[in-house]
Amino acid sequence: MNRRKVLLIHPPVIRPCEPPPGIAKLAGALKRHGVEYNIIDANLEGLRSVCQNSVAVPDTWTRRAVTRVERNLEALIQPAAYQNLDRYKQAVLELNRVLTMQDRYRSTEVSLANYQDQNLSPVKSNDLIRALESPEKNPFFPYFEKRMSVVLENDRPGLVGFSLNFLSQALCTFAMIGVLRRLDPTVRIILGGGLITSWMRQPGWKNPFEGIIDELVAGEGEGALLSMLGIEGAAGFSLSDFAGFLPLPYFSPGFILPYSASSGCYWRRCAFCPERAEANPYRPVTPARVLSQLKTLICSLRPVLVHFTDNALSPALLKALCREPCAAPWYGFVRITQHLADPDFCRALKRSGCVMLQIGLESGSQKVLDGFCKGIDLKIAQKVLDNLKHAGIAAYVYLLFGTPWESESDAAKTLDFSVKNSGSITFLNLAIFNLPAFGPQTEALDTTPLDTGDLFLYRRFEHPTGWHRQHIRKFLENKFRRHPAIAPIIRNDPPVFTSSHAAFFTPSLL
Questions:
Q1: Are 103 and 110 in contact (CB under 8 A)?
Q2: What is the DSSP string of 343-389?
Q3: CB–CB of 297/248 below 8 Å?
Q4: Given a cut of 70, is residue 56 above it in pLDDT?
Q5: Please, where are the H alpha helices in 102-245?
Q6: What is the rounded distance in angstroms from the CA atom of residue 104 to the CA atom of residue 342?
């Protein structure tokens, strides 16, 4: 065993359309310091393995989907499938059908974007430990066992790091750790990522995985990982390393480059903001360095699309991109600002390579936006949407219903705003508000635990106006989604992959 050799693992399940940026950053730091390492995208590999090893069940749709697995897997890595939305939808939904039905007689449900277990909860540490102790009950177990046996025999790493960012990955991560522990009890296991950070920064955090996981890491992991390897004082710039991911058959018509120009959020004023609650600082990369890094990465990787993964791209970076255009099409989240209210600025963004902007509008009620401290003026928002349309930039708009300031009449205003601006909205994401479990605003509400687990992230609350989830769902289904101006926008959204593939269905990339 090479005590210094590192294995980095991206566990199931999230949408398998692009490499994990966090692991690429860790790989870059290890490469810079001459540490030998390997990477495994167990999410992509595991989902493909389950699809390819599925057996048909006695219903016509699933039998047909199983016979088309290889064809559909091939289709989603070819540009041709993205030229026809109906053909694309068929491939995605048939693969998703194979995943969701392959395990129908057991307690788990797998999809291209999620993992659930009727008997185990990802917010209960005892259930996570049960997943670790009985990994054979996980539908990915045959893949985990075979893959880990080979990599341990061939590479013999001394340290294995998992990047756990979402609840949909938690049970599979612990099942995979259980396989590793069986195969090699001496291997050192490190667990980091966004979900681990959220857990560790909760008030009164106590580690329930003592003696099971060797190290838990909150926040950016490069310095912590290098320190574990005996490399101290290693803070500094490291270019992300995507070389190990480049040949992998991601579900996209070419290589998507995920890139983060910052950590945290530059606004940091929204009510119930997790960045504030978790005390995550805003750390931007300078625009000059961003442009330099992108130039290097694009030159070597030739991506079909750059995905900025920031919470929100800063106006300073947007201005820099206007001055020095990106050498590949790109998209990412932005805040509605006066910059975007300038038609010339939007046209310059288009020339820079921008094909789509994700916009967290949240509401069409000014009262709700002011209560949320979003810093958004609806009159400016309308100008921004109009400017983006005329510049040829798709607008992927996010709306959030059921916040404490919203009533049914406010939701109706959101519908009115959306209808009025439907010609400028390319895609819509409709979500119902989840109350974060911690933070000063939570104390003003009448709340109860949403789950009995010790790792819960959200709480149930008594809405001040009685605008509860069941009413919101009825409103969205019967009034919002069925409105003749809104329904075509909803149908335009790529199923399962949503914003991750939406840019490929914009005029700029068709």
A1: yes
A2: HHHHHHHHHTTEEEEEEEEE-S-HHHHHHHT----HHHHHHHHHHHH
A3: no
A4: no
A5: 125-133, 141-155, 167-183, 194-200, 222-228
A6: 53
Tokens 């490399």 label which residue?
231
The DSSP code sequence of 9-75 is EE-S-S--SS--HHHHHHHHHHHHTT--EEEEEHHHHHHHHHHHT----SSHHHHHHHHTHHHHHHH
Q: Are 380 and 339 in contact (CB under 8 A)?
A: no
- Supply 17's token pair: 């359309």
In eight-state DSSP terms, residue 168 is H
Provide the pLDDT for residue 386.
98
What is the C-alpha separation between 158 and 7, in angstroms, rounded? 8
Contacts by 50-59, CB closer than 8 A, 24 or more apart: 50/99, 50/102, 50/110, 50/139, 50/140, 50/143, 51/95, 51/98, 51/99, 53/142, 54/98, 54/99, 54/101, 54/102, 55/102, 57/101, 57/102, 57/104, 59/101
CA 115 to chain centre: 14
Looking up tokens 């990465």, which residue turns up?
297
Q: How far is CA 324 from CA 36, 118, 240, 256, 392, in A?
A: 35, 51, 21, 20, 19
Question: Exposed, middle or buried, 443 (CB in 10 Å: 0-12/13-18/19+)?
Answer: exposed
Angstrom CA distances, 198 to 172, 175, 190, 202, 272, stand at 18, 21, 16, 7, 14
Instruction: Return the structure tokens found at 136.
Output: 């054979």
CB 245 within 8 A of CB 24: yes
Percentage of the chain exceeding pLDDT 90? 81
pLDDT digits (tens, 9 = 90+) for 379-432: 999 999 999 999 999 999 999 999 999 999 999 999 999 999 999 999 999 999
Quote the pTM value: 0.95
Instruction: Provide CB contacts within 8 A for 42, sequence distance 6+.
Output: 9, 10, 11, 12, 140, 143, 144, 147, 176
Give yes or no for a contact between 86 and 79, defined as CB atoms under 8 angstroms apart.
Answer: no
Q: What stretch of H or E contains 413?
A: helix 408-420
Q: How confident is the model at residue 105 (pLDDT cuts 50, 70, 90)?
A: low
